[in-house]
Specification:
Number of helices: 13
Number of strands: 6
Low-confidence stretches: none
Shape: elongated
Oligomer: single chain
Largest sheet: 6 strands, mixed
Order of helices and strands: HHHHEEEHHEEEHHHHHHH
Structural class: alpha+beta
Strand content: 5-15%
Radius of gyration: 42 Å
């Protein structure tokens, strides 16, 4: 019985050996059958790329799905991500090479994007994909080409593209079973259960039932390495800068404050009005002549002034008894 420390050390040894020479460990999983699943093709491509030598420090065993799609020209479901509030859309390729694009959905309706982010097949798309003119299913999986028009690729195209493999989930398998057994008169409950078991067996990846604790440690290490940047705190941090968060902040900024915060709303408007006013120009203007610096004027007081020329003598009012009102204009 291995101890936990020995199992961890053996798991690290297996990972290091697989990193240095993957063919020694993965050759036993290589299949010589004519028909190969999408997972077996990815494994063969991984072994093929691991034998290549590169001059730079980049590993050649990366972007395997992109290389497989370009090598075998596999059919893909296209998802277009547009900048700003333009939203996203789905695109299907026809037999004649033309593309049919669906209506653009706002980023607030993010259910489809969450399925793609989790690498799961959306149940709401199964009917649409089955009615498509081209076959999009490979071993029960669907390849999605995500075209991000918000970013420009280094190749000079107007978008940055990458591929995602959507695998069947429990919900999609239940939808498949319900679609196949729509005629309930011919299918019993045992038949449905057996059909669901066969679909799960045909679409699932190889399962290791070794009770060794090293298997669990390897699975945990690989899962942690794959989802290192896909944690809940990381998602919350990224969602702060998403288009939905930007639209929400814009709506809050444009809306008025609650009735209890009228003073805050008034102060905010005053601040915005003060910022919008033009700033004072402190630049020195052109040199001008000061009109007050003319030659001094002689303002001496005259020696004699004819007072009666400028003054007017008023007659003395007549004497009236006391408490009599006098009208003065």
């Amino acid at each position: 019985m291995k101890t936990l420390a020995e199992a961890c050390e053996y798991a690290d040894h297996i990972l290091e050996a697989a990193r240095q020479n993957p063919s020694l460990i993965l050759n036993k999983f290589n299949s010589t059958a004519k028909w190969k699943s999408i997972h077996q093709k990815l494994l063969d491509l991984f072994l093929e790329e691991s034998t290549k030598e590169t001059t730079d420090k980049l590993l050649p065993m990366t972007h395997l799905l992109d290389k497989l799609v370009a090598k075998e020209r596999l059919n893909c479901l296209i998802v277009n991500l547009y900048p700003g509030n333009e939203g996203y859309s789905l695109m299907l390729k026809g037999r004649n090479g033309g593309n049919s694009e669906t209506l653009r959905l706002p980023y607030e309706e993010s259910e489809m994007l969450r399925y793609i982010d989790n690498e799961e097949l959306p149940p709401i798309l199964i009917d649409l994909l089955e009615k498509c003119q081209t076959n999009l299913f490979y071993s029960g999986c669907v390849i999605v080409e995500v075209r991000d028009y918000r970013r420009v690729s280094a190749s000079g195209s107007g978008y940055d593209a990458h591929h995602v493999l959507l695998k069947p989930s429990t919900q999609s398998i239940i939808c498949d079973v319900n679609a196949l057994t729509a005629d309930s008169n011919r299918w019993t409950q045992d038949d449905r259960t057996e059909l669901e078991a066969k679909i799960v067996l045909a679409t699932s990846e190889p399962l290791c039932l070794d009770p060794d604790i090293t298997v669990a440690i390897l699975a945990n290490k690989l899962h942690h390495q794959k989802h290192k940047l896909n944690t809940v705190p990381m998602k919350r941090s990224v969602q702060r800068f998403s288009q939905m968060a930007v639209n929400r902040r814009r709506r809050f900024a444009a809306g008025s404050a609650p009735p209890k915060l009228r003073l805050f709303n008034f102060i905010t408007r005053r601040k915005n009005a003060a910022k919008s006013t033009s700033s004072v120009n402190l630049n020195i203007g052109k040199s001008v002549v000061d009109m007050w610096k003319h030659p001094e004027v002689d303002l001496k007081s005259p020696e004699n002034v004819d007072v009666f020329k400028y003054a007017k003598m008023l007659e003395k009012p007549s004497s009236l008894p006391e408490n009599t009102q006098v009208k003065v204009q």
